[in-house]
Design goal:
3 domains, 5-stranded parallel sheet, globular, 18 helices, 711 residues, alpha+beta, FAD/NAD(P)-binding domain, 7-stranded mixed sheet
Amino acid sequence: MTKDGREKIAVLGGGVGALSAAFYLTEQPGWADRYDITVYQQGWRLGGKCASGHDMRPGYGHRIYEHGLHIFAGFYDQAFDLLRRAYGSLERPENHPNRGVWDAFTPEDNITLVDRSIAGSPNLMWYMDFPPNDQVPGEDLSVAPLAVMIQRMVGMLVHVVPSVPKAKAPAGPDQPPEGVIATLLDEAVALVDRLITRVKNEIEDVVADVILHQVIHLLEQQVQVIQGSNPDRNTAIMNERFLNSVYLAQSIIHGVVADDVLEKGYDSLDKYEWSEWVYANAVAVARKYPEWGDPATRARKLLDWPPIASLYDYVFGYGDSGDVTKPNFAAGTALRSGMLMISYRGHFFWKMRGAMGDVVIAPLYLALLKRGVKFEFFSRVTGLNIDPAQDQLASIDIAQQVTLKSPVNGYQPLIGVPIPGWPADVPLEGWPAEPLWDQLVDGESLRAAGRDFEADQKGEPGAGDIPRQLKLGVDFDRAIIGISLGGLKQVCSSFPARLPRSNWGPMFGAVTTTRTCAMQLWFTRSMDDLGSKGSDRTLAGADQPYSAWSDMSHLLTRETWSGPHLPRAIGYFCGQIQGPENGKAADRKAMGLAIQWLTDNSQLYWGRATSPSSPYGLDPNLLHDPEPGAAGDVLTRQYIRANCNPSDLYVQSPKGSVFTRMDANQSGLGNLFLAGDWTLNGINSGCAESAARSGWRCAQAVAGTLKPYGT
């Protein structure tokens, strides 16, 4: 306790889960009279897997570096609630580039899926445009019942109906009768519309299944007409996509009914892997249609269909760090994720106008700082020690990574990024891509030695670290641990044996993590000029390891380029990466895989940007070089990294894992609370929304108002 009787709360870690826990705790009435909160974070920046940085070297335009491709989905209600509250408390001036939360985000309704499901066309692009709606994310934190979600899923079928011109060429011996295709499509839309009306909250009724059967039969008739008449290929492809959409919807409804998910909830499907569950129900549906042929063959084709395959890219859902032959995504978590995605508010995606550190992490930091929360940077947690006589956290081992020149003032982590077109005296608060060395004792020596404060491969202190210990009753009364799962397995390694009745052991065994990699390219031409097939879009389903990428050219307005040669487009790429390498060796591997990926894929995605003489397919002259004339290939002056440190590992959701997760108050220790996307939080997958929800639940647990999971 402090001298004035306030409880000392130690927040360990600075990711979204930890920061949201601290923030929601400061939203509690009278919190300042009850709590004294300190956040302990390794290195020079907050954010965890969401940390970012600006390159401050001359000529580099304060360009942004991320751990990967970060985009908010339209169902991120808790995350948007968190940011709306944080931005509202900052009271930024009117001429600030990111004054309010909606100044800091831009909508995206267009995505592209690489479609390899069509015979004879291995790399088709499926351009999907999702209609915006008038809802606002973060205004309503309630989650619609599954029955309503299914109604929305059926409603989405209308948006994948092929668009076929009404006017047809005169009928001939090899052509369908005039207007027959358009008529069938009109009937399909009408059937879907009737289904939306009738499903409502009675989705378990067989009537829904009957109507979907009618839609399938209708589309089968259309397929037969088109295939038997040498149709326009584009029409046939869109027809097949619509048919598969209906088939997937029917398979999901069949599974929901068969497994009584409406009554038992999503998590009751945790014993199944997503593709396993979809396959079993797709086979059951296909058996009702002998004219389809072998049900197993038809169901396997559905698993290769882009919306199924791309979901694994979205959640890094392959085992062994990206082995596409080993999908492992729990069926219940996958079904919930899919339903939430199509139930978006406002827009399907929301891209950040700036680095994630600028848009998400810095406002949280500044809001907490304004409220009196303290931060101790360069404080790496290396161990948590349990009182041998009782189930209480007794002490926390810390490695103090540096000595500050001004301990009284503390480390001041942010920089001002001057934004083109905005007043110079109102910069955007951001994080540097490396520590501000001039605030550190022997900073230049540490910089010259290449000291990496985020390379936490080992739990014990590193070279030059100063061990210290936080003690119960002196430095903290209660603690919140928001460290990522990879780091937890180090600092809480004794917990499974010490707390055998808790879920620490089962969770460490069941909830897996994966390595990821990121590539960022700055181009000298616009995406359209490059012949891009992903212009102003996000694309999924590409080859591993860079299986998802997005046109991030809007970020040029949040970087500070000048001079005659400016970048005109930016692309962000990410995926899973295999191998045991760490540090520089892992980055070199990521670079080698990037060269191979560009060699294999540049022609597909940027048709006017390839060069046969380039060692990686892409014309190197089309990559912006911040150091013209410098030695080495320009690709080495882009940004390519492997995320292999324990704190960087992505938390997966394999089958059989959801009930090994622990809620915020289930650590087994009376004074230790949990926050992070690895907790049991209602999303249960690796994303900022999952972390924000966990932080919200953690704050409730500390305050003593947490309701049981699922209520």
